[in-house]
Amino acid sequence: MPKLSETESALTDESNKWSSVRALAQAALDFHIGFLGCRMGAAHSTQLDANAKERILKIVRAVSWVESKHGTAGSNQPKRDPVQAGNPNDKWWKELTGQSGQGSRFIRGPNLSNLWANELAGMAEATAGFEGDAQMSKLGDKKKGHSDAKFSQAHSYYWGIVYLIHRINTSAGDKSFQCGSLSRSRLIDGAVSYNGGGDARYRQKIESALALIGDLTKRDWINPLEELPESHQIALSFAVQASVIKSENASLQTIRLETERDGSLKAVEVTFKG
């Protein structure tokens, strides 16, 4: 058998370690997408589809790898806390456990009540589908976070992912449930915000992790039936009027918009069927 290259070996190592925690991370993500009432698109009115969920899972995977190599490396309880959500000295864990007043405000989607961070655990645990092993009552002393011997990987992913989604969206100027385009830059910026500034190289580490596991596309994919931002509508209208797009005897199938890191429009690509 030929010897694996260094890159192939690293990829195999990451993939094997991810396989041991993926189901838990996926379950936590699925729960919190529903719990927060997450929506995507320019108008924040569309439920997340499979592609959108996979994009968020990929940034969860990158964070998990950077923080602890999926629970296998590090000096800060990596096995118990793969995404380092339960560090008792961190702002987030103190907010979640009511040690710093009400904490951050979580604005949830349609027909869902908004919550302060210190109300989050009680409401989530009372919601159908929540993982019992992630309940705060499982801990001997919740203030100790992952220093408590009963803190588990379920606590890590369930309480880390909800905060990661919150940081991805609020760092972009949106509400907790508003996922927007889920662009590459938005997701990476959110991961850096999740870290809280403790590691000046965190962005580089996340990008390196994504390069290892399969990078996020740099394009934003927008369903043609969704409302487009005004600037994008103008660009598309101009392309049509300039005869760049010829749609005779065809129906619009896909609009692909490529954006810069700041969200400004870089290119428009349109495909038709028929």
Relative helix content:
40-55%
- Mean pLDDT across residues: 86
The sequence of SSEs as H and E is HHEEHHEEEHHHHEHEE
Main sheet strand line-up: 6-7-8
**What is the radius of gyration computed over CA atoms, rounded to a whole number of angstroms?**
20 Å
Q: How many strand segments?
A: 8
The poorly predicted ranges are 219-228, 240-249
* Helical stretch tally: 9
The amount of beta strand, in percent, is 5-15%
> Biggest sheet: strands, sense, closure?
3 strands, antiparallel
Please identify the structural class as seen in this structure: alpha+beta
Terminal Cα span: 49 Å
Sequence-ordered SSE layout with sheet pairings:
Layout: H1 6-19, H2 22-36, E1 39-40, E2 46-47, H3 50-68, H4 91-96, E3 99-102, E4 105-106, E5 115-116, H5 117-125, H6 153-170, H7 184-195, H8 202-213, E6 219-222, H9 230-241, E7 251-259, E8 265-273
Helix pairs in contact: 2-3, 2-6, 3-8, 6-7, 7-8
